[in-house]
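Dock UFG; give full complex structure.
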Amino acid sequence: MNILVTGGMGFIGSHTVVELHNSGYTPIIVDNLSNSDKTVLNGLEKITGQLFKFYEVDCNDNRAMESVFKENPIDGAIHFAASKAVGESVEKPLFYYQNNVGSLLVLMELMEKYHAPRLIFSSSCTVYGEPDFLPVTELSEKKPAESPYGNTKQICEEIIEDATRASKRIRAIALRYFNPIGAHPSSLIGELPLGVPSNLVPFITQSAIGLRGPLAIHGSDYNTPDGTCIRDYIHVVDLAKAHVASLQYLSGNAQCDFDIFNIGTGQGNSVLEVVETFKKVNECSLNYAIGPRRPGDVEKVFGDVAKSRRLLGWQTELSLEDSLRDAWNWQLSLSRKS
Ligand code: UFG
């Protein structure tokens, strides 16, 4: 099966390309390289021994996307391509709506036209906002989005639900990711944040290696055991495997038109727990200081993943320790290259 992977050069996309290949699928990568680098292809080739088809194309470019569909019979698509910086989305809402919502429309219209029947969409636990009950299940209430970025995820889920209801061709799954971290254990691919990382783990690894100053912990006065925010941190390889399981589920369950799954570990860890685990598993020091809360941060969120386990037959295999060791080894390999 040919699987179109939009955003396939990015952090989650590239790890999913590897897992697709490992499971016998043929990934075809589309990426505009706005937040990724062509060298990712070398890492993919070293890991898999395969040179993948890559189109440097923007998913909003209808004509260029159509030529990809004309050149390749597409059996399914995994749509990662999107902008994802929460703060930037507040400053450039129109860009976020155009880029994230517009690209989904282009993709789904072409999938309909060229009879590509399966879609896996990257959604986010951001749709739950600050949950009333934990862990959140797929039936938990969706809260008004805190940012245009979060709103694009909610809108895209709704578009897919409406479109799959009307379509005789496309069936889809939205995966609500919790917090993806880590890197491939080979250290040949990983996260490549542009500029100063706003996410916790890339900042930790860059700080520990001396590229950044001390980590600022955004608030220690939350209603949590140690006062810092709690998240469900999932190893990116486990997350990548959830996409393969979702494709297999769509293939084996013709009655499924659209469904939603939480993709996390089911366990929450605080910022301080992440910091302490990082120091312990990697035997390195990390300077940090407690700073003020970051606007828009949710106090605690982690997922109930029973539905994914039951229906997709998927569950995480790697621990927080594995994630933080692999993230650090990736950072070390980047510094050896530079
Ligand atoms: N944090 C710090 N210092 C930092 C960076 C982060 O203390 O320098 C804290 C944050 O305040 C938060 C936790 O670490 O408590 C995790 O923050 P991240 O930025 O790594 O992740 P978020 O949970 O804020 O955001 C992630 C994704 C979003 C997605 C969201 C869904 O990056 O795309 O999960 O909840 F929308």
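Observed: Residues 84, 86, 124-126, 150, 179, 198-200, 203, 215-218, 229, 231, 271, 294, 297-298, 301 surround UFG (CB under 6 Å).
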